[in-house]
Write a structure and sequence with these properties.
Elements (H helix, E strand, L loop, with lengths): L1 E4 L27 E4 L2 E5 L4 E6 L4 E7 L9 E3 L2 E5 L4 E6 L5 E6 L9 E3 L2 E5 L4 E6 L5 E6 L10 E3 L2 E5 L4 E6 L5 E6 L9 E3 L2 E6 L3 E6 L5 E6 L9 E3 L2 E5 L4 E6 L4 E7 L9 E3 L2 E5 L4 E6 L5 E6 L9 E3 L2 E5 L5 E5 L5 E5 L4
Parallel strand pairs: 1-29
Antiparallel strand pairs: 2-3, 3-4, 4-5, 6-7, 7-8, 8-9, 10-11, 11-12, 12-13, 14-15, 15-16, 16-17, 18-19, 19-20, 20-21, 22-23, 23-24, 24-25, 26-27, 27-28, 28-29, 30-31, 31-32, 32-33
Length: about 350
């Protein structure tokens, strides 16, 4: 096992975890990162949104983000989409950073938008799922749950859009009409993002259970007890589901057997998405470290100390694992060793 340390660098990542007495409080400015076509799009602690060419290290553009960025950006067909604490979804030109449109809701946004079929789907703290036309920024429809839906990113499968709510329900909504097709009641709030694989939708709830449902009908197939509440998005790779729980573990569950393959202990809650590359999975923890873990065995490959909490997944390009630093810069690590190989400092 290898360990590394960044000094004076730290990292603050996108918050997707729920705020509760057992959950770390969100940073005032949570930083997001996505890499598309060789360009890194990310936010800074000062509320700036930047685009950097990672091949040259040059900043392409920067703009004020109109509030705190708690969400990942989504980059599709020349546009950057992101939600803000000011309650608006923004669409920017990815080349210039110029605003194309914005749409206001009744609450802040904490999860990434999903783009599918010319529609931007996203959730808001006002409890609603929104469907917005990607070209015009006009609302096609919205569907309101009975509590906050800000943490669960919408997932699209066939003609349905799925999202979880703090009212304890997983919703399946028709992507064209906005009408509810079905809902499934769990025993606790849903902050985790569901995942669909092989016609089955998997969702974790704060009742410390993982549920497997038929994606088209919502019929329950099975449930599995966890040893901690799950706030993270789940990731499925080669028939294994990965999720982080509030007790500091990342768990790998073999879906065919419903058995835990391994669990990996960190020093605090894990609320991240996961980055898979070859035989490794990468993630951050609230204990202030970034981890590279072997997907087959659950053994630590490397660990890098950052000195601050992590609330989001990394991004990868050309064999480097990238994170946003607390200073608003960008760090690139060797995916095999965890050694720092690349850094960008933003223009003041």
């Amino acid at each position: 096992m290898k360990a590394g340390k960044w000094l004076p660098w730290g990292i603050v990542m996108l918050l997707i975890a729920a705020c509760s007495s057992t959950t770390p409080e969100p940073a005032e400015h949570a930083l997001s990162l996505v890499i598309s076509d060789g360009v890194a799009f990310f936010s800074t602690r000062e509320g700036r949104h930047l685009a950097v060419d990672i091949s040259t290290g040059r900043q392409k553009w920067g703009r004020d983000a109109n509030g705190n960025l708690h969400t990942f950006s989504t980059v599709v067909d020349g546009s950057v989409y992101y939600g803000s604490s000011d309650g608006h979804m923004y669409a920017l030109d990815s080349e210039t950073g110029q605003e194309r449109w914005n749409y206001g809701t009744g609450g802040s946004m904490w999860s990434a938008p999903t783009i599918d079929g010319g529609v931007v789907f996203f959730t808001s703290d006002d409890g609603s799922l929104y469907a917005i036309d990607v070209e015009t920024g006009q609302k096609r429809w919205s569907y309101k749950s009975n509590d906050s839906a800000r943490f669960s990113r919408p997932v699209v499968y066939k003609d349905l859009v799925y999202f979880g709510s703090y009212d304890q329900n997983l919703y399946a909504v028709n992507a064209f009409s906005g009408e509810r097709e079905w809902l499934f009641k769990t025993g606790g709030p849903i902050a985790a993002t569901p995942v669909v694989s092989g016609g089955i939708i998997y969702v974790a709830s704060e009742d410390e259970r993982l549920y497997a449902l038929e994606a088209e009908t919502g019929h329950e197939l099975w449930r599995l007890s966890l040893e901690g509440f799950a706030h993270s998005a789940s990731g499925v790779e080669n028939g294994v589901l990965y999720l982080g729980t509030g007790d500091g573990y990342v768990r790998a569950v073999e879906l065919a057997t419903r058995k835990e393959k391994w669990k990996f202990k960190t020093g605090h809650a894990v609320h991240t998405f996961y980055l898979f590359h070859e035989s490794a999975v990468y993630f951050g923890s609230h204990d202030g470290h970034v981890y590279g873990v072997d997907v087959g065995t659950g053994d630590q490959i490397w660990r890098v100390e950052a000195g601050v909490e992590f609330n989001s997944s990394p991004a990868m390009a050309d064999g480097l694992v990238y994170f946003v630093s607390i200073e608003g810069g960008l760090i690139g690590l060797n995916a095999t060793t965890g050694q720092q190989m690349w850094a960008f400092t933003p223009i003041p």
